[in-house]
Amino acid sequence: MRVPLRNMAGQTVGEVELRDDVFAVPVNDAVMHQALVRQRANARLGTVNTKTRSEVSGGGRKPWRQKGTSRARQGSIRAPHWKGGGVVFGPHPRSYEQKMPRKMRRLALRSALSVKAAEAHVVVLDQLSMEAPKTKEMVALLGRLAVDGTALILLHEPAFAVEQAASNLPQVKTLRTCSLNVADLLGYDYLIMPQAAVDAVHQHLGQAVEAAAGVAAGQ
Fold first, then answer.
1. CB-CB contact of 169 with 135 (8 Å)
2. pLDDT tens column, 141-188
3. Cα–Cα distances in Å, from 175 out to 50, 59, 94, 181?
């Protein structure tokens, strides 16, 4: 797959090849869904907590004697059916972490990238840099690139000016290639990448590279 290579002025200066084993694989909706659910579950803190009857304060003595009061027998005023008592089957701190094989995680990323490429929403720049972190320059750049929706800017190396220029735009997010994830790929309309980021994605998600790594691990 070949897509136009543009400069920051919005002009086409050539073509760049997107590898078919990364940007043109059969889309696996089930794996993408599983990866998205896993990512959201792993982001949950799971710190909510309720106290049981052994943890609430008070209730150290029997509220009244067992017999002779014409009332139901009670052992503690902090039993679950009392106001201020302990909670039965309430939530406690836990981990919501889900595991997923590496090959499935990478397949989910390839599927999400393939969806973007099929929609012609992948924009590749020869380079992406700014002298000063000015938001209006980022807005002008998106206009020259004809990006009419939300955009995910994928960077391979730190670019302080670019990241700061996009930070004030709620419809734009910057992300490093090492943090590429399914939720951000599916959550934004356009994917904007400089040539260096494309090369990094090819190197990380290329099936030939992964197969070679698997053979080396098996040896």
1. yes
2. 999 999 999 999 999 999 999 999 999 999 999 999 999 999 999 999
3. 37, 54, 29, 9
Out of 3.30.230.10, 3.40.50.2000, 3.40.1370.10, 3.30.365.10, which CATH number does the structure's domain 2-29+101-218 have?
A: 3.40.1370.10
Which residues are registered as beta bridge partners of 192?
A: 123, 153
CA 196/CA 200 separation, integer angstroms = 6
Cβ contacts of residue 48 below 8 Å, gap of 6+?
91, 92, 93
The domain limits of the chain are: 2-29+101-218, 45-95
Give the distance, in angstroms, between the CA of residue 83 and the centroid of all CA atoms in the same chain: 42
Q: Strands, DSSP E only, in the chain?
A: 2-6, 12-17, 122-125, 151-155, 172-176, 190-194
| Burial degree of 188 (CB within 10 A; 0-12, 13-18, 19+) | buried
